[in-house]
Amino acid sequence: MSEEEAHSLTDMPVSGMGCSVLVLNKNYMALRIIDVKRAFSLLFRELAEVISYEQGQYYNYNFESWRQISELRRNFEPQAHDWITTVNFYIAVPRIVRLLFYDRLPRTQVKLNRRNIYARDGNHCQYCGKKYPSNELSLDHVIPRSLGGPTTWENMVCACTKCNAKKGGKTPAQAHMTLIREPVRPKRNPAIHVHLPQERYASWRQFLSNAYWSVELT
User: Fold this and answer.
1) Same domain, 35 and 130
2) Contact 31/216 with Cβ under 8 angstroms?
3) Measured between alpha carbons, how far is 157 from 125 in angstroms, rounded to an integer?
4) Most exposed residue of 45, 135, 165, 208, measured as fewest CB within 10 angstroms of its CB?
5) In whole angstroms, what is the distance from residue 59 CA to residue 68 CA?
6) Contacts of range 202-208, beta carbons closer than 8 Å, 24 or more positions apart
């Protein structure tokens, strides 16, 4: 496979590029979720292999053998896969890849953003404890910014409109309010669970016990 073909795997604007790929270490333990571009980069550089679930069993493929079997699957079961299109061929998006040389990938911190804070708190107001749709929640600085409170994982929580208005520019103690739990920085991405129920990722279940449902997303 030429360098030009390898680059075309990630240059084509196709739906397959929006998929996620589970990464296992050499011992078949789940590490994290990566995007398709990074998965193909690992495969092309022979740093990983594809793990494919077929009729109740798992099979291992290097990049070239996965490319060849993709041609057969394109003819006989095209609806069973997401696809990447290059100038010369189609290739199925792998659901799982296994690292061949590294036990772990470099760890990255979970991004501090609205989506991840809502996921960490489960869309529950951290003062009254009730669950709300995202559009009925806001972010609250536990120690208000006006009092020097930082914008950090440990100082931001979900709050419903009513509780946020009641607290205002005060600390919880000043407002006579209590947090239902202390906010902390999550060690793994709290929003990963949104991917798991999808049928396309059914092959992940063998590798994801309850302890792995928060596997890190990059």
Assistant:
1) no
2) yes
3) 8
4) 135
5) 14
6) 202/53, 203/52, 203/53, 203/58, 203/95, 203/96, 204/22, 204/30, 204/95, 204/96, 206/53, 206/58, 207/22, 207/24, 207/28, 207/29, 207/30, 207/96, 208/22, 208/30
Question: 156 falls in which pLDDT band (50, 70, 90)?
Answer: very high
**Mean pLDDT of the 200-214 span:** 63
- Same-domain status, 39 and 137: no
* The pLDDT value given to residue 1: 46
Looking at the DSSP bridge assignments, the partners of residue 32 are: 23, 216
121 falls within a domain = yes
Say if residue 207's pLDDT is above 70: yes
Q: CA triplet 182, 151, 136: central angle to 5 degrees?
A: 70
Per-residue pLDDT band for 194 (boundaries 50, 70, 90) equals very low
DSSP assigned state of 124:
B
Partners of 211 in beta bridges: none
Tell me: do 24 and 92 sit in the same domain.
Answer: yes
Enumerate the H helices of 12-160 as residue ranges. Answer: 36-44, 63-76, 114-120
Distance CA 57, CA 82 (A): 20
Q: Are residues 94 and 122 in the same domain?
A: no
The top-scoring range by mean pLDDT among 116-125, 168-177, 194-203 is 168-177
The total number of residues shown for the chain amounts to: 218
Whether 103 has a pLDDT exceeding 90, the answer reads no
- Give the pLDDT band (50/70/90) at residue 107: low
